[in-house]
Structures are given as structure tokens and as C-alpha cells.
Amino acid sequence: MIKKPVHVILDNGHGKETAGKRSPVWTDGSQLFEYEFNRSIVDRVFKRLSALGIRVKRLVPELNDVSITDRISRINRIVFSMASQYQCVLVSVHGNAGGGTGFEVLTSVGQTKSDDLAEIFYQVAPEYLSGYKLRKDTSDGDSDKEDDHVSILPKSHCPAVLTENLFMDTPGDCRFMMSEAGREAIANMHVKALQLYILKNS
Prior knowledge:
Layout: E1 6-12, H1 34-51, E2 56-58, H2 68-82, E3 87-96, E4 103-107, H3 113-128, E5 145-146, H4 152-155, E6 160-167, H5 171-178, H6 180-201
Parallel strand pairs: 1-2, 1-3, 3-6, 4-5
Antiparallel strand pairs: 4-6
């Protein structure tokens, strides 16, 4: 069976007006807004994948918040429109909060191709996030955290992962997230993981 080439869908979670999705105001007056961080990472990944000749689409070009229902509808319209020529994969980019630290990947419940992409992220992450914790749930034999309450994961008709790229309310994590070097590292990690997934699946 001949495999179809992979079409990447990039989702930057949350919008400019989404309440609460921001860091504290730090002592130097700086603050991270998740909508801006997510878009910064997605923009970088989009440009690099495009330059590599990989087919890629930005799901939410708007700055305003697009509801999860609308985002899922957009994803599945893309998947269905590409079905004859391409196999799609979704990566939803986020920053975490809640007082923790580190990087993690969420997928829907059960063993799917989403788990394959998540595992690749965990394999490449140490190269780009050296010194930061890799948050894992190995109870089912792999590293990703499975959660059907994040509805974009089980309701997308393609392999789908959600990356939580450090904690915006933890000072050390947030400084890295706000820095140019940090954003470059996080974006390059996504590019490398997607390249490896495409190499394996195309």
C-alpha cells in the first residue's frame, strides 16, 4: 500500500481576549500572554515546515478567540478535503499553568497514531529543552498524557496532539518562554518531531 504524504495542521490555542491565559506580571514589569506565545511558536514552525516543502496549514490566523467547536469543525473540513491526496496530523500549541514546570504532550485516550507523534516529541525534547522536566504518564507503556476532556483531541478526525510548552506562571519556565532563544528552541523541537513523524509515515 502506497502511503499518502502528510499534511500538517497547526493550531495556536486561545485568543487575545481569552481570560486568564497569561503569566503574572513579573518584577521587571514583563508578562507573557499565551495567545501571543502560541502564535509565535506556530508562526515559526509554519515558516520552517513550508521552507522544507512540507504541506502545512495554520488553523487559526485570527488574533481573536475561536471557539473549540469552530476549531474542531475547521480541522475536520481540512481533513475531509485532503482525504484523497493527503493524511493529516494536528499539533495544538499551548503554554501551561498551575505552578508546575516542564513539557508534556496530551493525546486522546487509547492507542492511536497520535501516540506515535507524542512519543517522537518526548524523544526529541531533551535536545531542545535541556534542564526542563519531561512530564510523563507511563502507566500505559508510553509517555503521553491521555485526556478525552480536551475535546480537540478525540473529536479531530486525524492524529492529534496538544503540546504544553513549559509553565507561564513559573518564573524560570516563563523567562525561557519569553526569550528569543527559548522560542527558537521550542519551535525547532516541533519541526524536528514533525519531520521524524512524516519520515516514518509518508
